[in-house]
Amino acid sequence: MKISTLLSLAGLAVLSHGAQVPRDYANNDYYVLHLDRSTSPEQVASRLGLRHEGQLSELEHHHVFRAPKFDEDVVKRQIQERKRRKRDVGGSDPLDSILLSSKQKPRMHLEKRMIPPRPEGLPVVRRQEAAPPSSAALQKQAEVMKTLDIADPIFNEQWHLFNPVEIGHDVNVTGLWLEGITGKNSTVAIVDDGLDMNSNDLKPNYFAEGSWDFNDADAIPAPELSDDRHGTRCAGEVSAARNDVCGVGVAYDSRIAGIRILSKAIGDAEEAEAMIFKYQDNQIYSCSWGPSDDGRTMEAPGILIKRAMVQATQKGRGGLGSVYVFASGNGASNGDNCNFDGYTNSIYSITVGAVDRTGAHPYYSELCSAQLVVTYSSGSGDAINACYSGHGGTSAAAPLAAGIFALVLQVRPDLSWRDMQYLAMDTAVPIDDGVAEWQTTTIGKKFSHTFGYGKIDSYAMVEMAKTWEKVKPQAWYFSPWIHVKKNIPEGKDGLAVTVEVTADMLKAANVARLEHVTVTMNVEHTRRGDLSVDLISPSKVVSNIAVARRLDTAGTGYKDWTFMSVAHWGESGVGKWTIIVRDTEKNGNKGKLVDFHLKLWGEAIDADKAKPLPMPDEHDDDDHNVIQTTTLQASTTPIAAGTAATSVKGNPSDHPERPTKNPAKPSGTEKASPSGTNEAQEATSSASSSWVSWLPSFGASKTVQIWVYGAIGLISAFCCGLGIYFWVARRRRLRNDSRNNYEFELIDEEEAEGLNPGEKGAVGKKARRTRGGELYDAFAEGSDDDQFEDYRDRERSHTRLPGDDSEQYVVGDESDDESGDEKAERKPLSGPR
Ligand SMILES: *[C@@H]1O[C@H](CO)[C@@H](O)[C@H](O)[C@H]1NC(C)=O
Ligand SMILES: *[C@@H]1O[C@H](CO)[C@@H](O)[C@H](O)[C@H]1NC(C)=O
């Protein structure tokens, strides 16, 4: 074998492991450059005086370059210089091949922010501690344990798997186990703060090949900091083995991988690598984290991470698509909502919220129109027992769902990432808690912003999967940007804008029926938290795509922010879509709806005509006058053509001053016009914030009607426009990314309500005893999770020496840690940081 072949094989081996060399951010700068095919990375490196470090994981044409540490973004500067010179002297230059440049800024290590205390005045509703288990249920439980040879000492406490007290409030999985469906040959990766692969409960199922530590740049994602316990707990819920240790995972024969990213600052480059790490082998990525749930943060993943996720849904799992599961977030009591988090409102993630063992909505679990389903977690005085008995929050719900999806993949490994969403949606069971509002959707499902389509029923989901006919590929229709530029009246009335989508448009776009709907919008406002937005479909299903957030005082409004809804699943999409933007507070803070862009995603009519979505671009939403590349490729119709051509001729790059130029309806009926505004405000002044009461008065004649119709016969103009567009788009891509700067926060797993002291103390003790000190104590009590007074009292008497607390814990000194009305939040002392 030639030496060069050997070398390239070695190179491949290194590359296939993701992070090849530990990146030394202390002494170097790193740039990720997206290059076109015309120039090699080596040419670019030598031109810029950087060192080429290799491709960024599997992301084609994305390369990592290293430079000596320097404050300035040297690549950006050189690109700008080159542009200036190009205007004067022209010629060619390797820099012309750079489509995107992103200087990596590792985010500072963040303290894990504690879950907010219970809001004052919210009563603690505890489940009846004395309620005895049903003897029939206990008998069934015993039979299951005997038949399956389950000897795990805390299985009896794992009510989320089998609940003998609140009958029916569990994930209904034992019937599947009895059929041999236990997650065999399925793989879940826990993207988190590490995974204790040496614990006796995880060792048998640990999947080393799919694991990586992006914080320490090695192959072993073992927990290292004293508070690296979160990932191990999540992993236990999925894949704790059936043995004599602790309990079992919901998919106890599945493989479990650990991808460690949360323990130190990392750049977008590493996060992108993590999100697609070994995506042919890791099938499901379970993510119990996200931007802060403080009720004022509004953050989305950076472009490299977005691209990684899009690529994973197209190429991961042999083209079936990686399945991402995200916890909805724990900020409900801060008024937070999962549509303000760009991970949970991505169409590529299944967002999972929580329901507690009494069937109630836990006060922390965030609501939103992007939430697909919920599953069991902490609340009403109890939590999830996955070796450690105080696991909870939406952090515990996501892995439970991921484990159930692993059961589905055992039976049907051929299902796509969208099939998984269909199955979850279709088999979820609505929950009647007497509080949540439910709407009946167009396809006869119940949807609630509190619980999505309801709780996952493992048995029902796998049963349906067995005979599921796979859906056709994805297709999409993007409306042009709808330019509104109208003030939003303060108060309940709001500003309504209607867009009509015709059957022909969807046919031309190859869209048969809807799945996700997204709305990208620009709203100027001096107090962002005052705003709310509803999206109403042609069949009058209402999505609260944005809600007012009392703590969000940002003066920035919404900037190209994309909201998402799953409530319109199965609709045809044909008809009038309305958005209503409200300024809910009369406080002198005012704003204006600038423009928005409706995107209907769904199943293709003709699979042969379907194409993969082009990689997202950081400036996808900049060209407010241009139909996006993606649409051009999807709908090769006069509609897109006419619009694109018109727009390009208009004012393609100017963000603030966008001409209101929508193609007129061919028949000459109404079209968008600024004069419609007063009428709209008048019309909607009769609307109230309750959708029920304004629906009847919601008339076509009363709202602004912006008819979006395609002009026919503009194909040649389109071609011309397309050329200009690509030229403009390419130039624009050279700009630097301004969105790769965001922070992470663990969605912490506990709520500050009292646990059932008797049970917890007993279980915790037993669990520890069983481990015999062999388990990494990620599973153990004693950490940030330990904030239950009565629980602690109990614990002390069992296992801790008096005064132990003060040695292990410090009472939080940050405002974040202000104690709630009942319990002091505590946080662990820093580990070896
Ligand atoms: C739960 O699983 C059983 C089989 O074990 C099945 O008969 C039942 O329909 C499932 N769902 C519910 C809600 O009970
Ligand atoms: C296990 O899964 C892999 C890929 O996911 C597949 O190729 C293989 O056939 C499966 N094996 C079994 C026994 O199902």
UniProtKB/TrEMBL annotation:
Basic and acidic residues bias: start-end ranges: 789-803, 821-833
Family matches, as CDD domains: Peptidases_S8_Protein_convertases_Kexins_Furin-like (cd04059)
Predominant localisation class: membrane
Compositional bias annotation for Polar residues: 670-684
Region ranges (Disordered): 81-100, 644-684, 774-833
InterPro entries in UniProt: Galactose-bd-like_sf, Kexin/furin, P_dom, Peptidase_S8/S53_dom, Peptidase_S8/S53_dom_sf, Peptidase_S8_Asp-AS, Peptidase_S8_His-AS, Peptidase_S8_Ser-AS
PROSITE patterns the record matches: P_HOMO_B, SUBTILASE, SUBTILASE_ASP, SUBTILASE_HIS, SUBTILASE_SER
TM ranges: 706-729
Subcellular location: Membrane
Pfam family, one: P_proprotein
GO biological process annotation, one example: peptide pheromone maturation
Endpoints of the signal sequence: 1-18
A GO term for molecular function: serine-type endopeptidase activity
Domain P/Homo B, first and last residues per copy: 471-606
GO (cellular component) term, any one: trans-Golgi network
Keywords, alphabetical: Calcium, Glycoprotein, Hydrolase, Membrane, Protease, Serine protease, Signal, Transmembrane, Transmembrane helix, Zymogen
Active-site residues from the entry: 192, 230, 395
SUPFAM superfamilies on file: Galactose-binding domain-like, Subtilisin-like
Similarity comment: Belongs to the peptidase S8 family. Furin subfamily.
Name of this chain's protein: P/Homo B domain-containing protein
Species, as recorded: Cylindrodendrum hubeiense
